[in-house]
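Bump. Still looking for Galactosylgalactosylxylosylprotein 3-beta-glucuronosyltransferase structure tokens.
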Amino acid sequence: MNQEIRLRLKHLLAFLAIVLFLFFYSLSSRGCSGEQEEQAVVAEQNGRDAFLPNHKTGPTIYAVTPTYARPVQKAELTRLSHVIRLVPSVFWVIVEDAEKTSTLVTNVLKRSGLENRSVQLSAKTPTNFKLQGKDPNWLKPRGVEQRNTALKWIRQHLKRSRDAGETEPPGHSLVYFMDDDNTYSTELFDEIAKIEPGKVGVWPVGLVGGLMVEKPVLNRDGLVLGFNSAWKPERPFPLDMAGFAISSDLLLSTPEAQFSYEVERGYQESEILRHLTIVHDMQPLASGCKEVLVWHTRTETPKLDAEKALQKTNKKSNDGMEV
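Sorry for the wait, here they are.
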């Protein structure tokens, strides 16, 4: 009988030993698994962070975008909004060529979450300067009214900030003319942020002026000597609107600096820059003007023959929709 009890006790102890072993093994495995899961979560978060905006502080960049109603307007502004979302230092100044602002542009700002980093303005181009029918887009100056309206708003905004004693000094911000039909790298805005007070920064622009790239030409000391422009190289500043940005203190101290309807085709850039700087005093950026971070691209005009035929029957494919 005692032998049977001892045997049962041995079996019980062996069973308990197995149970304890499995219990501690389970805890150990669970700890490793939890650590691995935590590492996986961290790796996944780091992967997502690669696509999140860089939150480092820097000067505010006022990006001025003239726009007008056309079939591709929403597509153009949506693409541009995705770039601006990734650059927290950009404040978007959209100016519509219209009597009043539109719900379409308002909706783009709402959907992109940029309502607090933008202002929506309107300024209608005078009829005698408006392109008509099949006029080529180069026949008359475009965006003059809208860019001047943006400059007026920026100057007033900076003066109010200065008078209110806000922390950001008016000279520590920048103005860039950011057309809605170009293609922009987010790296461009890191370069713009390097522009010093009292300076106009310059860099190359791809696919413009009949060349693969238009760019500033520098001497051995890194000073801007001129530009490699092939189209009207005799212009005082033969560069594209996408190829420069201005320290806002220059605009505050030079109220006459703006665009004009009275200048020859291709001279809008020279018209504003002649008040602000000289070629040799411009600040070269983008690795000594060796990198292309913006391209002068244009959306192809959509073929809407079927839509026009549909409209003749008092119908339209986008009835009740915003395209």
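The CA atoms of residues 75 and 190 lie 25 Å apart.

Edit: fixed formatting.
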